[in-house]
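Re: beginner question about structure tokens

> Can someone show what the tokenized structure looks like for a real chain? I only ever see the sequence side.

Sure, here's an example I had lying around. Input first:
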Amino acid sequence: MIGGGVIQTGWSVVIAVVGLGLLLQNKVKVSEPVLVAVAAVVGLVAFSYLPRK
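And the corresponding structure tokens:
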């Protein structure tokens, strides 16, 4: 499954849940390409500050 290979840390779970919440809410329409771009930037910034194993 793709989700099991991608969502491995707490931050990944937060990004996935927030993204899903934005897609499923009805107040503000967020297009999928914009959501993917924003999630990518947030992921790059968030994971650049995490210590490497």
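Each token stands for a local structural state, so reading them left to right follows the chain. The chain has a mean pLDDT of 77.
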